[in-house]
Amino acid sequence: MAQTAALAKTSSHRRSMIAKIHVARKQINLEEDDYRQMLFDVAGKDSAADCTEPELEAVIERLKSRGFTPFPARGGNKAARHKVARKARALWISLYQLGAVRNPSEEALEAFAKRQLGCERLNWAKQSDGYRLIEALKQMAEREGWHQRGPRGEKLSVRQLQKGLCEAILTKLQDKGLAGSGWTLEQTAFRLLGEELDLLLVTSPEVWVNLAAQLGRVLREQGGAS
Question: Per-domain residue ranges for the chain?
Answer without folding.
Answer: 11-65, 79-144, 157-226
